[in-house]
Amino acid sequence: MISDELKDHRDVITKVIDNLVPDIEAACAIICEVIKAGNKVLLAGNGGSAADAQHIAAELTGRFVKERKPLPGIALTTDTSALTAIANDYGYDQVFSRQLEGLASAGDLFIGISTSGNSAGIIKAFDVARALNCKTLGLSGRDGGKMNDCCDLNIIVPSIFTARIQEMHILIGHILCKAVDNLFE
């Protein structure tokens, strides 16, 4: 079982290397442009993708590898009062879009993470981010789902298995953080 899991992981990462390097380079350029301009990176996802959003935000506000100033990375998944109030008053599918309306500004970057690419709350958040003139980056899997039509760049991990998709999402998140680290001497 262990060997099979590792081989499956290797097969997916080989597909990522063979097919997604240009998209990952484009995503690195987007996040670096946003950071250089002094704008924020806002992230959201559900379940394991929420954990990935928080992880990437923490790498920005804390540090990834290099000592540098803290950067504005905000996970929209962490404020339980906001999440539960918005879900109660407006419905769960608006927990991220309502926060974006209050926190995002033109030129910020919204990163939405959904293994299926079809999470209703993430799709609504992309709609709001675009209306606010934010840049938008998706991390998805399978066929990219509805996210294909609602973000500037949707990086689609070539797998149907949630675990493999999430493993690649955090790897891609780390690559984004490495690109940001490289902005600083």
Automatic annotation (TrEMBL):
Q: Which domain of life is it from?
A: Bacteria
- Enumerate the CDD domains for this protein: SIS_GmhA (cd05006)
Q: What is its main location?
A: cytoplasm
Show which residues constitute the signal peptide.
Answer: none
Q: What class of enzyme is it?
A: isomerase
Please provide one cellular component term from the Gene Ontology annotations of this protein.
cytoplasm
- Record protein name field: Phosphoheptose isomerase
Q: Which organism is it from?
A: Mucilaginibacter gossypii
